[in-house]
Protein 1
Amino acid sequence: MTSLSRLTFGILLAATMTIGCSGDGSSSTPGTGGSTAGTGGGGGGTTGTGGGGGGTTGTGGTTGTGGTGATFMAMIPCPDEASYTTTGTTVMFGGALLSNYAPKCLKVSAGATVTFSGDNFAFHPLQPSTMRGTLTGNPITLTNTGMSKAFTFPNPGFYAYLCMFHGLDDAEFMNGVVWVQ
């Protein structure tokens, strides 16, 4: 074998070992597969090449675990984690005190359904916030008829809402947040 052929073979062997085929090219060392993945399993190794007849087939990586819920985010009207209640899945609104959603700060698990119930939505139209919290994928939609409406929250996040007539995004007045974990 010429010097150039040996050099080329050495480079190819080093590249093969770098991409995870065979550990050292011997027939007794198994290759390794993918690494731990965030949402799926790693890929399997390939049959090694090189000296000693090639390595054995590698093994796949371990399956990763799912993500966690949204970490705390302070916003009006929920300045700290203690502001959130985990009791119930109904938010009452309207009545004598227009500034009230009760509770204003509700924490639920992903997949939970939250019902807004109270005065007529014609007097207190519910709408998602466009300035606070998770701004995409908010399951709350503009609701201006009826007295009760349920929304399912499939994904973790902070879903802010307000009364179209009486709420403000930048003040504690007829607004709230659903924190989905």
Note: The radius of gyration is 28 Å.
Protein 2
Amino acid sequence: MQRINIFIFVLSACLLFNSCDTPLNEYVPKNDTEKDITALLNTYLDARNNGDIKRLTSTFADNGQYIAGNGARWTKSKIAESDAEWWLQYGKVKLLNPEFNINGNQATVSSTGKWGVAYKTPHIASLVKQEGNWLIVKVKTGN
């Protein structure tokens, strides 16, 4: 009975403080492919969170697109022409609890996007490996 109480206490503490969440920048990749993809997504996050449009654009494939939770669609060329303020207006985002699905030169990383203190939404990144580099084909946030 005491073991059950300890387990419930630890689980409750994790849920209460979100300490069970693993941010992408703290995720330990299981292999070199996950390491490469994690590096790309960390670059994407850093560029997005700092309004670095040129660097953000570089993380997308030529046919890449970003689909925001409000339904706005951004192609790579539209991202390149966008104003940093559009990306910064929603605050800094963290990706939590990444789950990798890798199949050859294609991959999907499902995670939870966390904006600010409490707002969380699904964040799904579809990627492709082109000429030895991973690039984002599509990012979809929201439900």
Note: The radius of gyration is 17 Å.
Protein 3
Amino acid sequence: MKTIISILLLILVLSCKESVATDNTTDTSWYNKYGSKFENVNFESLEDTFAKSALEKYYVADDERGYPVYDIIPENEIAKQNIAEYGIDFHTIPFDSSVHKLTSKTGFVYLIDGEAFWGSDGTVPDQEISKFTVMHKNKSLYLPDSSYKDLFNPGGGPQAIYVSNGNDDYFIPILQGSDGAGAYTAAWIFKNGKYVRRVVDSVQ
């Protein structure tokens, strides 16, 4: 009888070890597959040096700065007039799990609708963006749904800045979203009235 109990206990221990190994493998495989998504859109991947300088203070903590930072947001009447020509129509709704596919393991949500996402550290989000439109002179500018559909718990909505290097004009809505641990900062760069790209990274 003791021999049978010992064998059963050994099988139980081995099965537990196998379960943990499977979890670790799954986590690694998930990161290898989806981790590049975060690396490709983050602040450091931004090649436009002027826009990067404008956004630096939203992504880089003061003790991480390696060079002086200059306030390049022009405070003049032309800048105020130009930013007034833009508008943002932004709405959120409660997150509805019944219309999304959630992929989770041991209670940790990895994917929503098969994609990596921002704004939640493994929990089901509370809010999602239902509409995000950027307008210039009362005309809607192109902004793909994919640039915001993976952002959850967006907070109070984006704030916008207008910057210019003398030749190019930039309109940049900036959003800081969070559920606490899943905090992030997202920015949508419009250059001369056209959408260029999104930058999103963990909050500074």
Note: Residues 42-202 form one domain.
